[in-house]
Design brief:
Blueprint (H helix, E strand, L loop, with lengths): L8 E7 L3 H12 L8 E7 L6 H8 L4 E4 L6 H9 L6 E5 L3 E3 L3 H10 L4 E9 L10 E2 L4 H8 L2 H4 L19 E3 L2 E2 L3 E5 H6 L12 H11 L3 E12 L9 H20 L3 H26 L1 H26 L13 H15 L10 H21 L7 H27 L3 E6 L3 H8 L7 E8 L15 E2 L4 H6 L4 E4 L3 H10 L8 E4 L8 E4 L13
Parallel strand pairs: 1-2, 1-4, 2-3, 6-11, 12-13, 12-15, 13-14
Antiparallel strand pairs: 4-10, 5-11, 6-10, 7-9, 8-11, 16-17
C-alpha cells in the first residue's frame, strides 16, 4: 500500500485503444535513470476494445489500472486518475509517449527550484524528431486565433507579435514562463490542481489543457516550459481510431473554450459551431482523399485501358466508332469499375493496411472472372469478346502494376538515423542528407561531455551512455559518424583499391589491441571453396 510521502510523482495516463503504444510508454517509465523521482503509475482505460487492461495488467503489476465502463473522455479520465494520486506532483502523460531515462529526474529538479510554479512542460518531439509546436504556446485569444487562421503566424514565425500562437520566436531549448503547455506531458503541483478542482469535464477531448493552464494562472501560479529535456510523442494514435469524431471534438472544444473564457454569445457561438463542423468535414474529406488516391489511380487506369482497346478493336474490325451515337458501349465502364474496384475494396487493398498476396490475387481473379461472366451473360450487347478479354487483362495488369509499385515503395529500406555528435562537423554532415533515398536523418546523438551549441538550435535526441530508449522510441537503428578531413581524404584515395579489406582502428584509452571496424569499400572477394 502506497502512503503519502512514499512517491514523488503520480503519473496519470488516460488510454483508449492504444495498447501497444501504452506498453512502450510504461516500459519507458520502468527505465528511469538512478536518482529519478519515485513514481506511482495510474492508467485510466476508457473502455478500450483492444484488450488493454486484460493484456497489460499482468505485464505491469506495479501499475494501477482503472477500467472505465465506457469512454467518458480525456478530462473525466484524468480527474478519476488524479483522485487516486498520492504524490506532491502529478504528471499527466499521453499513452503514445515515451519518456527518456533522465527526463523525470531533470524535471523534478527544475520544478523544485521554483515554489511558485504550478505547471511545467518539456520539449516534445514527434516520431521523426521534429518539435511539436504545441508543447509551449499562448492562450488562443480571439486576436491570436485570427493571426493563426489568417496564416500570419506561419508567414512570420519569428515575429514576437505574430508568432505568439506557438511562440515560434523563442528558443525551443530554453526555459521560460509561458501561458500554456501541452496536455501530452503536463507536470502540475497537486495542491494547485485540487485548488482549481482539476480539469473542466465539459471538454471531452482537446482544449482541456488550455483551460486548465488559464485557470491555474488566474489562481496565481506560474507556468513554465523547460526545453533542455524532452520526450517522444507519437501524436494522434488514439484519435486515429476515430478520425472524424476526433476532428469534430477538436473544433468543438475550441468553440467551448471561446464561449467559456471570452464571453462569446449565442449568435457568435452558433456561427463558430457551424464553422467548426465545416472545418472538421473539410479536414476529414481532405484526409480521406489522400487515403483514397489508389482508388482514383485504378479508376482512371482501368477505364482508360478499356476505352483504348475497345476503340482500337472496333476501328480495326469494321471501322466503327466506340461509344458512337446510338451505341450502349458506355454501360461496360460502370460494370468494369464495380467489379474491379469493388473486389479490391472487399479484400482490403484500399484500407491502408498491407493486404496478403493471397487475398490480393483472390480479389483480382474475382474481378476478372466477374467482369467476363457479366459479358458472357449479356453477350447480346457485347460488341467483341476479344476486346473484353484484352480489356480485362489490361485492367488486371494496371491494378497489379499499381499494387507492386506501392508495395515496393512501402518496403523500401530507408535508414532512420542519428548523426553522432553535435559539433560543426556533425551539423554539416546532417545538412548533406536533405533528400536522401537511403538515409533519413532525424537528429543528433550527443557524446559524453560534449558541449552543446550555445544557440540551442541543435538539440540532441539521444545522448551517451544510454541512448537506446531514445533510439527505440524514434525507431532509429542507424548511426552516422562524421570523419575529419584527413580520414575523408585517405578514404577517397583508397577507393581505387580493389579486393583489399579495410579496417578502421578505433582509438582506445587503454593499451592493447584496438577495436577494428570493417569499412571495406569493395566486398567483391573471390568465393573461398572448402578444400
Amino acid at each position: 500500500m502506497i502512503r503519502t510521502g512514499e512517491v514523488d510523482v503520480s503519473v496519470v495516463v488516460v488510454s483508449y485503444n492504444v495498447r501497444d503504444r501504452l506498453r512502450d510508454c510504461l516500459e519507458s517509465l520502468r527505465s528511469l535513470e538512478p536518482g529519478s523521482p519515485r513514481v506511482e503509475v495510474i492508467v485510466v482505460d476508457n473502455a478500450s476494445a483492444d484488450g488493454t487492461v486484460e493484456t497489460l495488467s499482468p505485464e505491469f503489476p506495479e501499475v494501477q489500472f482503472l477500467a472505465m465502463d465506457r469512454n467518458l473522455g480525456f478530462s473525466i479520465g484524468c480527474n478519476r486518475g488524479a483522485a487516486l494520486a498520492k504524490a506532491e506532483w502529478i504528471l499527466f502523460l499521453n499513452p503514445d509517449t515515451v519518456v527518456l531515462p533522465g527526463t523525470l529526474r531533470e524535471m523534478k529538479a527544475f520544478v523544485d527550484r521554483n515554489p511558485e510554479l504550478g505547471i511545467a512542460g518539456c520539449r516534445i518531439v514527434d516520431g521523426d524528431g521534429k518539435l511539436q509546436l504545441a508543447c509551449r504556446r499562448s492562450i488562443p485569444t480571439p486576436k491570436i486565433t485570427i493571426q493563426r487562421l489568417s496564416g500570419l503566424s506561419i508567414l512570420f514565425p519569428q515575429s514576437k507579435t505574430l508568432g505568439r500562437y506557438n511562440l515560434t520566436y523563442l528558443d525551443p531549448a530554453g526555459s521560460y514562463p509561458v501561458e500554456a503547455v501541452s496536455g501530452s506531458f503536463l507536470w502540475i503541483r497537486t495542491e494547485a490542481f485540487r485548488e482549481v478542482q482539476g480539469f473542466d469535464e465539459i471538454f471531452f477531448l482537446y482544449g482541456e489543457d488550455l483551460d486548465l493552464c488559464l485557470r491555474i494562472a488566474r489562481a496565481g501560479w506560474e507556468i513554465w516550459y523547460h526545453g533542455s529535456v524532452h520526450i517522444v510523442h507519437h501524436k494522434g494514435q488514439s484519435a486515429a481510431t476515430r478520425p472524424l469524431g476526433a476532428r469534430i471534438n477538436f473544433y468543438q472544444a475550441m468553440v467551448v473554450f471561446a464561449r467559456k473564457n471570452f464571453g462569446v454569445g449565442v449568435v457568435l457561438g452558433g456561427f463558430l459551431t457551424l464553422a467548426a463542423w465545416l472545418l472538421a468535414a473539410m479536414g476529414h474529406f481532405g484526409q480521406s482523399m489522400r487515403r483514397w488516391r489508389r482508388v482514383g489511380m485504378d479508376f482512371v487506369s482501368i477505364n482508360a485501358g478499356f476505352f483504348a482497346i475497345s476503340s482500337f478493336w472496333l476501328w480495326m474490325r469494321d471501322s466503327g466508332t466506340y461509344m458512337a451515337e446510338g451505341r450502349s458501349d458506355w454501360i461496360w465502364h460502370p460494370v468494369l469499375t464495380v467489379w474491379f474496384l469493388g473486389a479490391m475494396l472487399l479484400v482490403g487493398d484500399y484500407s491502408g493496411v498491407p493486404v496478403s498476396r493471397r487475398n490480393f490475387l483472390t480479389g483480382l481473379a474475382a474481378a476478372v472472372g466477374g467482369f467476363l461472366a457479366t459479358g458472357f451473360l449479356a453477350k447480346s450487347i457485347v460488341f467483341s469478346r476479344g476486346s473484353f478479354v484484352i480489356g480485362a487483362g489490361l485492367a488486371c495488369s494496371a491494378i497489379l502494376g499499381r499494387h507492386l509499385w506501392h508495395t515496393r515503395r512501402t518496403r523500401a529500406q530507408v535508414h532512420r538515423a542519428l548523426v553522432v555528435g553535435v559539433g560543426p562537423g556533425s551539423q554539416e554532415l546532417a545538412r548533406r542528407f536533405p533528400s536522401s533515398s537511403r538515409v533519413r536523418i532525424l537528429g543528433f546523438l550527443a557524446l559524453q561531455g560534449e558541449p552543446l551549441p550555445e544557440s540551442g538550435e541543435v538539440m540532441p535526441l539521444a545522448s551517451m551512455p544510454n541512448p537506446m530508449p531514445a533510439l527505440k522510441a524514434l525507431e532509429a537503428r542507424t548511426l552516422v559518424i562524421a570523419t575529419d578531413e584527413r580520414i575523408s581524404r585517405t578514404l577517397a584515395e583508397l577507393r581505387q583499391l580493389r579486393q583489399v579489406r579495410l579496417f578502421l582502428a578505433l582509438p582506445t584509452p587503454r593499451d592493447g589491441e584496438p577495436v577494428l571496424v570493417d569499412i571495406t569499400l569493395d566486398h567483391n572477394f573471390p568465393t573461398e571453396r572448402p578444400q
